[in-house]
Amino acid sequence: SRATLRQGLSILAQMGLVSVQRGRSGGAVVTTPPTATVSASIALLFQTRAVTAGQLSEFRRALEVEAAQLAAIRRSDVDVSEIATALDAYLSRGSDAAAQNVHGRGFHHAVARASGNPLLAETMASINDAFAECFSMLHTAPDPAPLIHALHWPIFDAVRRQDAGAARDAMPAHFDQHHRAL
Fold first, then answer.
1. In this prediction, what percent of the chain has a pLDDT beyond 70?
2. Of 60, 72, 96, 116, which is least surrounded by CB within 10 A?
3. Cα(174)–Cα(144) distance, rounded to whole angstroms?
4. What is the dihedral sign for C-alpha 106, 107, 113, 117?
5. Alpha helices (H) along the chain
């Protein structure tokens, strides 16, 4: 029915998936979904227990290993600078778990952007937002700076040196620590 169709289009518009123009020349047009829509969907899966924190971490790990390898191959000097800045910000937030969470995501997103693959970068942005919400529910204590450095420096250094194999090998160590924390 028309009422059902209007309601469906309204819901899709609220989710940012369509844009509805009223009037004689109007209609519904599919839009690019914002990363917040994808993040909210992933977070909802976690909150309803359809996906566990471990499963979300496994998915993120698969993406980030590839992102680190591609970043080492494709990175620019600007990318290296952005990753270094994000790592420095992460390290400087020693006693604030919430700020660490934000800056840790910034580091990982900078690596994903350096991969040169916009789909990977957008997926990582969505996953990182959802993961942050999930991780903050389970992990409230700040990480010590030596641990942050030990897990993230090898990733940064491999990307900086354009060593794809080392970048690919450094990321799993980071996720092994996440798995233990979860």
1. 82
2. 96
3. 14
4. negative
5. 2-14, 35-47, 53-74, 77-91, 97-114, 118-138, 145-160, 164-181
